[in-house]
Write a structure and sequence with these properties.
Blueprint (H helix, E strand, L loop, with lengths): L1 E3 H4 L11 H10 L3 E8 L7 E12 L6 E7 L20 E5 L9 E5 L4 E2 L3 E2 L3 E3 L2 E3 L2 E2 L2 H4 L17 E2 L9 H4 L4 E7 L10 H12 L21 E3 L5 E10 L9 H9 L7 H13 L3 E5 L7 E5 L5 E3 L5 E3 L5 E4 L4 E4 L3 E2 L9 E2 L6 E2 L4 E8 L1 H10 L5 H8 L6 H16 L2 E10 L6 E5 L2 H6 L5 H10 L3 E3 L3 E5 L10 H12 L19 H15 L3 E2 L5 E2 L1 H6 L24 E2 L4 H13 L5 E8 L21 H10 L5 E8 L1 E3 L8 E2 L2 H15 L2 E6 L5 E13 L2 E11 L1 H7 L6 E6 H7 L15 E10 L4 H12 L3 E10 L8 E10 L8 H19 L2 E2 L3
Parallel strand pairs: 14-17, 30-33
Antiparallel strand pairs: 1-13, 2-13, 3-4, 3-6, 4-5, 6-11, 6-12, 7-8, 9-10, 15-25, 15-26, 16-25, 17-20, 18-19, 20-21, 21-22, 23-24, 27-29, 28-29, 31-32, 33-34, 34-40, 35-36, 37-38, 38-39, 39-40, 41-43, 41-44, 42-43
Helix pairs in contact: 2-5, 6-7, 7-10, 8-9, 12-13, 14-18, 21-22
């Protein structure tokens, strides 16, 4: 919200010495986010005057159109050099100008020699195009004004053409209010009332302790039966509808300068008088309005939900297909407006319209003013559904004062009568649903207990009354909340109002006293250990949004009955393309990898730990839950039954080089073994023995996919998969070839783990190393051979490592050779050769029995 300081002073008598920076400090202390204070007219100095164009000579001998003009600037004009005068004789100024949107007789803004325009653009008498130019006819861009009228071809907003009644030679800086300060406020969703001058003025009045001149305090006639006919079919979507009619409008007048300038300073472009007035009232009171050309409205105006597939063209010229949840304004033909968002092209206020019966072209002379209060959620969903955010929808989404509709309609009628010469009809239409004022009960010392400061009852009551509340009671306060504060629902909301107005800076700084003996849970410790371990292994953590769309499951090649396709859908998603919560971490990680690859990073290793969401069934939340007590076990069980299951997972993706090449030798690309090794890294942190088996599981390559099992107490639990992604998946997602990935469930690892990682035992006795090479069938998993060797070697085995895999004609068709290094060590003695050899032979014997392994060369 852009707030001109000169406009703000109309409602609050701020001290004359207060600058925009001073007001910014006060409003920030009151809790508003005033981002900047713009100094309008900075670097602008006169003389800048109003002139009237006397003559225009077209210079055609140049490549672009040039005009040589004489302009009457009154007594500000200087004499010609031949006359030898110092200036001020009232002689017309000769000025060269390239713009073409003005004519002889027009009043324009003239910068005379010696003036300085914004951007340090100095005006001086100079010879150009064979003539002497003594000044410049100014455009709105050159004056730093913003949009004065619709842009011309090429993006320029053209020369500022002033109304004919302005006086020649008058000071243009005062006329156009070029000097001002504008506060730019980032209005948070809970302070929608500050999207108006009325709301910001109220905050400024409280901050300075000054009275407020409320612009909504108007004499409004009572509703009667003579108003424009209206009908509301959805009182929940529209709980208040007001309509007023103004006839006899003069279609010729344009918006006065003061109205245009206020709209410009507030960041809006002037359009036409009727539209400018509705925008002005919206900025002033915060109530969006819409003006319909009454001759184009057919029959009763109504409010209802749209029909499925109904079509409607909005003011921006876009034809839209409506949704049954859209709230629309209608007449007998159908929709004429998207309620709270944008009006329709079929009832647009225009400078000229064609009478449908006579074909006569004329301007709008009769308007119907609509001021209504619409459901914030309905407006927000409609605006998001149609990707059509407007000034009106921004206000309705954050909450509009329902009691301001009648005053806003009256203010609009008054301005139309004053500025367009119209006549207000006596009829007043108002349809309002009955509603009692909202009240909140709060202990008088509640703000004291929240802030840790003794405010006292008098201060609490005074501050609540300043924000518009009516307060009753002594120790137990009954607070009637004002209609413009829909965010005040609970005692803590009221406490926040007291605290912010008393000053956040006055709150004492105290450190919390945490109870002793509490720390991270086992789940949290595992989460942190896993992150540190993967970071130490060269992976970079990437945090992604937990939202997915159905298309990514097709790209991952998941079967139609894959459980990962069963998702939890959001009622109000941030993006219609990703309306569900993720069931796997891979989509977000792979998107991050693709994004980094596209930006020039080709050797990537990323990981993420986070929750996935698996639906557990439908149900209803238990009623009666409050925050003043702990839920019962039954209520917690009911809540858990409704909530989706949310296991914590870890995933990693790799692409490009895993080891860089250099003077030390050749590097190597990342492959499926690196993905499996990242899983082993995670398992070690959980204290879990990981068993690796070949598997087929989307989105991995069927021949390069490993199933990961956690082995504990003789049981094996599937905890994830790792390997190289299927080529079709990498192509569909735009990933580098041979991209690899791993995903595991941390909760299952924690259950299978030993609870803590055991420190390695250091022995003072030497190690005995024995190597064995076993020949087995290609179908035998390497993990089975290793498991047999480990069990057969017994307790003397310290570690086992596969260091070579060989296949060739030397060992036979369909065979492979696995070479292992076995390390033996005893905790209390030095092993003899015989003991180490016996342990090795026992290991080989059990491997031969279980897998058919044969010692190579035997």
């Amino acid at each position: 919200m852009r707030v001109p300081l000169s406009w703000l002073r109309e409602y609050v008598d701020l001290p004359a010495t207060e600058t925009g920076r001073d007001v910014q400090t006060k409003l920030i202390a009151a809790g508003l986010e005033v981002e900047t204070v713009e100094q309008l007219g900075a670097g602008l100095t006169g003389p800048l005057v109003v002139g009237q164009v006397l003559t225009i000579e077209e210079l055609t001998e140049f490549k672009k159109p040039i005009r040589f003009c004489t302009v009457d600037v009154g007594r500000a004009g200087s004499a010609s050099p031949a006359e030898g005068s110092e200036g001020g004789t009232g002689a017309p100024q000769e000025i060269i100008c390239g713009a073409r949107n003005f004519a002889v007789g027009d009043k324009v803004v003239v910068a005379l020699p010696g003036a300085v325009l914004p951007g340090d653009f100095r005006i001086a008498e100079r010879k150009t195009y064979g003539r002497v130019s003594r000044g410049m006819i100014c455009s709105s861009d050159e004056l730093g004004m913003g949009d004065w009228e619709a842009p011309q071809a090429g993006g320029s907003h053209g020369i500022v053409v002033l109304p004919p009644e302005v006086e020649i030679g008058s000071d243009a800086t005062e006329l156009l209010e070029l000097y001002d300060e504008v506060l730019d406020i980032a209005v948070t969703p809970d302070r929608g009332y500050c999207l108006s001058m009325r709301g910001v003025a109220r905050e400024a009045a409280i901050a300075y302790g000054l009275p407020l001149r409320d612009p909504a305090l108007l004499d409004v006639p009572a509703p009667n039966s003579y108003g424009y006919p209206a009908q509301v079919s959805d009182p929940i979507g529209c709980d208040r509808f007001t309509a007023r009619t103004v006839v006899g409008l003069d279609p010729e007048p344009h918006s006065p300068i003061w109205l245009k300038r206020r709209l410009q300073k507030a960041g809006m472009r002037p359009i036409s008088l009727a539209v400018d007035i509705t925008n002005y009232v919206m900025l002033e009171l915060g109530q969006p309005l819409h003006a319909y050309d009454r001759t184009l409205v057919q029959g009763t105006i109504g409010v209802r939900r749209a029909e499925q597939g109904e079509k409607f063209t909005t003011l921006d010229g876009t034809k839209r297909v409506l949704d049954p949840e859209d709230l629309v304004i209608i007449d007998e033909r159908g929709p004429i407006g998207l309620a709270g968002v944008m009006g329709g092209a079929n009832t647009e206020i225009a400078d000229s319209v064609t009478d449908p019966e006579t074909g006569e072209v004329r301007g709008t002379t009769e308007v119907v003013i609509e001021a209504a209060h619409f459901d914030p959620v309905s407006v927000a969903r409609t605006a998001r559904r149609h990707k059509l955010s407007s000034e009106a929808s921004r206000r309705f989404e954050r909450g509009v004062d329902p009691q301001a509709a009648a005053a806003a309609a009256q203010r609009t009628v008054d301005l139309l009568v004053l500025l367009a010469g119209g006549t207000a009809e006596a009829g007043v239409t108002e349809i309002a649903a009955q509603s009692a004022p909202r009240t909140v009960t709060m202990r008088a010392d509640h703000p004291d207990r929240v802030a840790g400061v003794a405010y006292g009852r008098e201060t609490v009551v005074r501050r609540l009354q300043e924000v518009g509340c009516d307060v009753y009671g002594q120790d137990e306060l009954v607070v009637s909340v004002p209609s413009w504060r829909p965010d005040l629902h609970h005692p803590n909301d009221l406490a926040e109002e007291v605290i912010r107005l008393e000053g956040y800076e006055n709150l004492p700084a105290t450190l919390p006293q945490p109870p002793a003996g509490r720390g991270l849970t086992a789940r949290q410790r595992l989460h942190r250990r896993v992150g540190r371990a993967l970071g130490g292994a060269g992976f970079v953590e990437a945090l992604n949004y937990p939202f997915v769309g159905a298309a990514v499951f097709d790209q991952l090649g998941l079967e139609a009955d894959d459980p990962r396709r069963s998702v939890v859908r959001l009622v109000n998603p941030l993006s219609d393309e990703e309306p569900a919560l993720r069931t796997t971490l891979l989509p977000g990680l792979l998107a991050a990898l693709r994004r980094n690859e596209g930006r020039g990073s080709h050797d990537l290793a990323l990981f993420e730990t986070g929750l996935v969401f698996r639906p557990t069934g439908e149900g209803e939340l238990p009623a009666g839950l409050t925050v003043d007590r702990r839920p019962t076990e039954a209520e917690i069980a009911a809540l858990n039954g409704v909530l989706p299951r949310q296991p914590r997972r870890v995933a990693a993706v790799l692409a490009g080089a895993r080891e860089q090449s250099g003077w030390w030798g050749a590097g190597r690309p990342a492959d499926w073994a690196d993905a499996v090794e990242s899983a082993r890294t995670v398992a070690r942190e959980a204290g879990v023995d990981l068993v690796i088996r070949a598997d087929q599981h989307a989105p991995w390559h069927p021949g390069r996919c490993a199933a990961l099992y956690a082995s504990a107490d003789g049981r094996e639990t599937l905890v994830g998969h790792a390997g190289e992604l299927h080529p079709r998946v990498t192509k569909a997602l735009g990933l580098p070839e041979r991209t690899c990935a791993m995903e595991m469930e941390l909760d299952l690892l924690e259950e299978a783990g030993r609870g803590s990682v055991e420190a390695p035992r250091i022995s003072t006795f030497p190690v005995a190393t024995q190597d064995v090479a076993l020949v087995v069938s290609h179908e035998v998993p390497t993990a089975e051979v290793e498991k047999a060797l480990r069990e057969g070697a017994g307790e003397l085995l310290e570690s086992i490592r596969l260091f070579d895999v060989f296949a060739g004609s030397q060992i036979g068709e369909g065979k492979k050779s696995l070479a292992y290094a076995l390390r033996f060590r005893a905790a209390d003695r030095t092993l003899t050769v015989e003991e180490a050899s016996a342990a090795r032979d026992a290991a080989v014997a059990l491997a031969s029995e279980r897998t058919g392994a044969v010692l190579r060369g035997a």
